Amino acid sequence: MRKLIPIFIFIGLVLTAFGEVTPAQEAEFIINIIDNVDWPSGTGGKFIISVVGNGKIAQALTDAAGKKSGGKFNIKINTITADDDFSEAQMVVITDNDKAALAKVLKQAGGKPILTVTNVAGFARYGVMVELISPPSSNKIDYAVNRMVANKSGLKISDKFISDAIKVFG
Asked: 160: which of 33, 45, 84, 170 lies 20 to 30 Å off by Cα?
């Protein structure tokens, strides 16, 4: 039995190291969503992502945006509250599990070409356009798309991105 203890410790460390999606992985995925949406003209080459909630995601997005510099957009990350004005943003990332905050964000974004993204389970059902889904003990990011809400906003999400989603609403 004593010989098995190091093996169990090693397995536990491997599962811990490889079993969760990191904020950096989520941020890279979110930044890559930009290329899967037809954006309205008139942004002047700037792309604002406003983050409601977790500062870890905001910092990871800042790092990921820096790596993607030189693309068709100059990406800027803002950390905001649900009460702040984000009408200049092209994307709002919601990491706060508060449904009242979600309602405020969705009300402000409603009908505008602002892509809403979350890593909170079940929020695509409530009207967020893209929900990141990380199965337990997995470092893979799946996602759901709320196509109906995206269409109402005037944004066109690529057919490939939608077909790769594990769940599509609308």
From this structure: 45
